[in-house]
Amino acid sequence: MHSVVCIKQVPDSAQIRVHPVTNTIMRQGVPAIVNPYDLFALEEALRLKDTLGGTVTVVSMGPPMAEAALRKCLSYGADDAILVSDRAFAGSDTLATSYALTATIRRIMANMPVNLIFTGKQTIDGDTAQVGPGIAKRLNYQLLTYVSKIVDVNLEKKEIRVERRAEGGVQLLKTSMPCLITMLEGTNEMRFGDLDDLFRAARYPLKIWDREAAGIDDVEMIGLKGSPTVVNKVFAPKPRSERAEIIETQDDDPKNLAVTLLAKMFTQNPKLEREIAKRAR
Ligand code: FAD
To answer: Which of the residues in the chain have pLDDT under 50?
Structure first.
């Protein structure tokens, strides 16, 4: 069983601010973390390895500092890690990113067949949720999005059954492998890596592939040239002046609740009361 998990290093969004004058994202001093959604994908791949054996390879496309994110994944128990890093990738949008990652995965497959590809549902910085589907499309693989549980994997029949969270319910889906799964958040809890994995992660000879090593010949497909998306403006939404208020009541009769609410509104806005009374006449 060989799973490839795509992980992205992202700035800890809880600490990100938008510059009030230039409207650019202020990244200085913001710690970089593994995209939290990707950890649910990694844990699921590790659980499959626990039950079926095999290998988990983590892949990230990013600047050299993304090595830290990959080492973190190794410390949780991933077996191999590949950082795809090249100046030629700078400015890549989701189309170019999925192109580069697909080429990388094809290279990995040339050495060892891959049964499953995992991505997170989305990232916490780009938030597009496009990269996973982009890779599946390019590889012509079945795409299983919003997967909440892997029910079982039949390696002999090359089949997988998963639960997928859909609006209003859960779907049980079966498909053939290899396929790509985008893993939903909150579906598992990342394990603590053991001491052996921690030491191994620190010393592991992580692979760093440039454009050529990743098998990308056509530079028109990556970086700014391969990126038709243009981000025109980034801005923080204006803070709302009114504050939300929680009204606590023991009374769960909707009529009484409505009366309480109206009374509150009229106290705050007496004009509104007069207006409604006028219309009611
Ligand atoms: P999503 O589609 O939300 O991610 C879904 C899943 O895909 C993730 O959970 C993860 O599992 C996987 N995934 C996503 N990205 C990666 C990755 N890099 N490696 C491995 N797995 C991944 N970003 C920069 O850092 N530098 C730039 O110079 C830059 N220039 C850009 C220029 C343009 C015009 C645009 C539109 C975007 C640019 N970006 C840049 C942002 C970059 O395109 C996105 O960060 C990237 O495509 C991933 O998109 P996303 O964050 O929305 O991921």
So the answer is: none
